[in-house]
Amino acid sequence: MATKIEKLENNIVKINVTVDAEVAKKAYNSALSRAARQINIPGFRKGKAPLTVIEKYVGEARLKEQVVDDVLPLELSKAVSENNLDLALQPAIESFKFSVGEPLEIVVSAELKPEVILGQYKDNTIEYEEYKAPENAVEIELESMRNRYSTLKTVEEDREANDKDIAVIDFEGFVNNEPIERGSGKGYALDLGNSNFIPGFAEQIVGHKKDEEFTIDVTFPADYSEEKLKGAKAQFKIKLVKIRQRILPELNDEFAKKVGNFDSVDALKEDIKKYIESSRENENEKRKMEAIFEKVISDTKIDIQESMIAREINAVIAETKQAAEQQGQNWDKIVENQGEENISAQAREEAIRRIKNSLIIEKIAKTEGIKIEQKDIVEQVSAIANAYRTSPQEILKQVTQNHHFFSAITQQAAIRKVNDILLHSNNFQPKQV
């Protein structure tokens, strides 16, 4: 076997593979024998027809294609390995030339991954935005827990709504005196202290009483999802149907037992402290990783070909569409509101970021000689099982049934190892405020 590599523009290479005449002939005879065992020809028992009849029945062209399919994977693998080709896609056969008794010549085109020239990724001093938990973090979490276990009681007395209440409202919205599409509702329960409505909406309900009817003025955010409502000034007619008050449980040992089987409030507080500290450490580790990776990306040189970017853009848009539709959103409506150009521009930015991240992690892994062992796969499977609250055995079952899932787990294990190297090979210090 002989190969010749020809490098073209845009990281494309042509691989000319020449297979020895004897090897090609043996492969042809093997393909012919297999066909004889598999094909039924009228007038002959299965497997008993003469090879010349089989050859004529199947056709030389089809048999030669089978020869290429049989010999190319191994020969191509050798060529890729011997020439250190880093393929971005599965190679495609452009042409082949073969007559039995002569060498088999195959021309293959392949797209390579772009060259990655790493900057300094070790021994840097990196500043990061340090996360500090609030001094009253334990009290905040306790109050949140009490809210989660609260009950609601309809307020009977004649009083104004406050920002701790749930207001049940009927509303109707207008822009320029025209009703807003899907801008009305009846019996809607609105948490006045934790609202995700238009900014200023809930705040203007505070201070009103049950059965009161009034109008509020709001302005839609400039980045609102619907194009025609971006930055629009609107009026909402409101009727406050009822006010519901949260009744918080008393913070005592009984409450501690209810929320987590703790013996006492002190034990609950101690558990919350550990959780807050663990969350703080995880958040700061995440921020350190973001800071060092931003530095590595800015210092790394990669000239990514447009074909690679285009494929990733398609993948990003497909994922975005799928996520939107799973949430019950209409993709065509989203495109109409945000604009196809805007969506494509955002997808391109995300695609380039993904490609750079992937190539840099791969390059560092190669540079550091990272190898993924069985224990790494087991650790990653356990982490996924914990995240999805299932058993490692269930994840392993899916891994054995899905090659792509196994590849993803292997990649995640490599990312974790690269992250460990970046975290432990650089110095980090909080930014000075």
Annotation keywords:
433 residues; alpha+beta; Alpha-Beta Plaits; five-stranded antiparallel beta sheet; four-stranded antiparallel beta sheet; 12 helices; 21% strand; elongated
Structure description:
The chain has 433 residues and is α+β, with helices and mostly antiparallel strands. Among the domains are: 2-112, Trigger factor ribosome-binding domain (Alpha-Beta Plaits, 2-Layer Sandwich); 151-247, Chitinase A, domain 3; 368-433, no CATH class. The chain has twelve helices and 13 strands. It has helices spanning 21-38, 51-58, 60-82, 137-148, 253-260, 265-299, 306-326, 331-338, 340-367, 374-387, 392-401, 403-424, and strands at residues 2-7, 12-19, 92-97, 104-111, 116-117, 125-128, 151-154, 166-175, 178-191, 213-219, 233-247, 301-302, 427-430. The strands form four sheets. Strands 7, 8, 9, 10 and 11 form a five-stranded antiparallel sheet that branches. Strands 1-2-4-3 form a four-stranded antiparallel sheet. Helix 1 crosses helix 2 and helix 5 (253-260) crosses helix 6. The longest helix is centred in the middle third of the chain and has 35 residues, at 265-299. The model has no long low-confidence stretch (mean pLDDT 90).
